[in-house]
Design goal:
The chain is an alpha/beta fold. Helix content is 21%, strand content 22%. The protein is globular. The protein binds S-adenosylmethionine (SAM). The site of S-adenosylmethionine has 19 residues, from α6.
């Protein structure tokens, strides 16, 4: 068996039969194979799941194939990556940062702390009060400034930084008197040691691929924190990529189910009116703990906020009442 890729929408039963070993090798029962082969490539009964599986754009598949549970293309028979590119084209935002995009930034700037995003922010005031966090805050990965403005509304003086200039342009447009800056990855050189009481990062770590980069970034964040300062890191939970939510959809990406820490996972943000696929990197709780252990920051609390009936904000929740879409890590720099 040569390298093969799986394309397409695999129903959960097919995925169950893919339960493979640690090397990501899955064995599919041939009974789970349906439909004609693609481009003359044989449908295989055993597949090696490798690399990034591009998200499927069903509309671009040959007419005969939409009923397929999956298609496995054996590379020995001439199905090439260019075949995949032809199929997938530009439906995916497979760039280093999906937010370096004018349309995406424009759409993002119009979305407030609504729908499932409410759960990323709901508990923050309580965390500020529990740990006595006040003063100067850096919003690392501020995007179009939604999280920065939230901090300011809660009494902090704020600076927002982001690697995506497109997002920063929109943040300044919405808040011309705010301090927003474009930075290079991991580079907080504009700020002296110990500048901030709090560094918040609401969701940028989902786009940082490797442990090395996460560690480097957290060390730089720690440098600009005061001794005794607080780091709050809000990240998509691993379950985020497996369910349907008010604000996001993952049902077109069954391959998320077999992703391991560091693998690309895909999601569509429903609130934006921009249904291009966002590619994140899965990072499990265990991986986060290992990452934090290599920095001067000590984990003091982890929260996984669920929507509650007593919440002042309500909407027609999907999985938000049973599964937490976010993990909130509270870390401290030693005194
Ligand atoms: C999902 S958005 C969230 C924006 C904002 N924090 C909010 O809650 O609305 C994630 C942001 O993180 C930024 N980002 C990703 N990697 C980054 C990095 N290494 N350094 C700084 N910002 C980063 C992206 O450009 C994007 O604007």
């Amino acid at each position: 068996m040569k390298d093969s890729v799986i394309l397409g929408t695999m129903a959960p039963p097919s995925l169950a039969s893919l339960a493979g070993d640690d090397a990501g090798i899955g064995r599919l029962r041939s009974s789970t194979c349906h439909g004609p082969p693609l481009d003359g490539a044989p449908v295989s009964a055993a597949v090696r799941v490798h690399g990034i599986i591009p998200p499927l754009d069903l509309a671009r598949l040959p007419k005969a194939t939409p009923a397929l549970d999956f298609i496995s293309i054996d590379s020995e028979h001439g199905a090439t990556n260019s075949t995949l590119d032809d199929l997938y084209g530009s439906s995916s935002m497979n760039q280093r940062d999906p937010y370096r995009d004018v349309e995406r930034a424009d759409a993002y700037s119009k979305v407030g702390i609504i729908n499932s995003y409410y759960l990323a922010y709901r508990d923050l005031p309580q965390i500020f009060s529990t740990y006595g966090v006040t003063g100067a805050a850096l919003d690392f990965g501020c995007g179009t400034g939604r999280s920065t403005r939230f901090l300011r509304e809660h009494g902090f003086s704020t600076v927002g930084v982001d690697i995506a200039e497109e997002m920063i342009v929109k943040a300044i447009e919405a808040d011309p008197h705010g301090d927003y800056r474009t930075i290079d990855e991991c580079d907080l050189g504009a700020f002296p040691n110990g500048s901030f009481d709090l560094v918040l990062s609401s969701m940028p770590f989902d786009s940082i691929p490797t442990k090395e980069e996460k560690v480097r970034t957290l060390r730089e964040i720690s440098r600009v924190l005061k001794h005794g300062g607080t780091k709050i890191l809000i990240a998509a939970s691993p379950e985020f990529y497996l369910h349907e939510w008010v604000s996001w959809s993952t049902k077109s990406f069954p391959e998320n189910r077999i992703a391991r820490s560091g693998d690309v996972v895909r999601v569509v943000i429903k609130d934006l009116g921009d249904d291009r696929v966002v590619e994140d990197y899965l990072w499990t709780d265990e991986s986060y703990r290992e990452t934090f252990a290599e920095t001067p920051l000590r984990l003091v609390e982890t929260r996984r906020p669920l929507a509650q009936p007593e919440d002042p904000y309500q909407c027609e929740w999907l999985n938000e009442t049973a599964v937490a879409p976010f993990s909130i890590y509270v870390l401290k720099k030693a005194q």
